[in-house]
Design a protein that fits this description.
Layout lengths: L33 H17 L6 H8 L8 H12 L12 H16 L5 H12 L1
Helix pairs in contact: 1-5, 2-3, 4-5
């Protein structure tokens, strides 16, 4: 996984926990290890759901996905739904491990074209939940 950044979170000036001391990628954040990258993914989704009112899977994915340079939003959403068993109008609960872990794993799998390491994902969830 490039930059230990499972969702390819773009640089916005946000200071994430676990960032690598050197940020050499001009577009995406670089994390010290995958656990901190997955933790950032959970926090990112929580911020979008709670602050950005992106409380459904469709709203989250269409707001988060890149514009014209990115993949087709409808196809991307359909793929996430197929792999998670969720529906586009699924109400998201950022504190529900049964929902968030499969969602983050699925997006990571699509973004990185590889299956996530579940040990890293579960470790990140534990840090995220404090």
């Amino acid at each position: 996984m490039k930059n230990n950044n499972p969702l390819n979170l773009r640089r916005t000036g946000w200071i994430w926990q676990g960032l690598s001391p050197r940020q050499t990628d001009p577009e995406a954040y670089q994390f010290r290890n995958p656990v901190y990258g997955y933790r950032a993914a959970f926090v990112f989704i929580r911020m979008k759901v709670w602050r950005g009112r992106k409380n459904t899977l469709h709203r989250l994915l269409t707001e988060w996905m890149p514009g014209a340079d990115g993949p087709d939003r409808q196809l991307y959403t359909a793929r996430v739904c197929a792999l998670t068993g969720m529906v586009p109008k699924q109400i998201l609960d950022p504190l529900d491990a049964n929902q968030m872990i499969p969602l983050v794993c699925t997006i990571s799998r699509i973004e990185n074209n590889e299956r996530p390491n579940m040990f890293d994902v579960v470790a990140a969830w534990r840090i995220y939940m404090g």
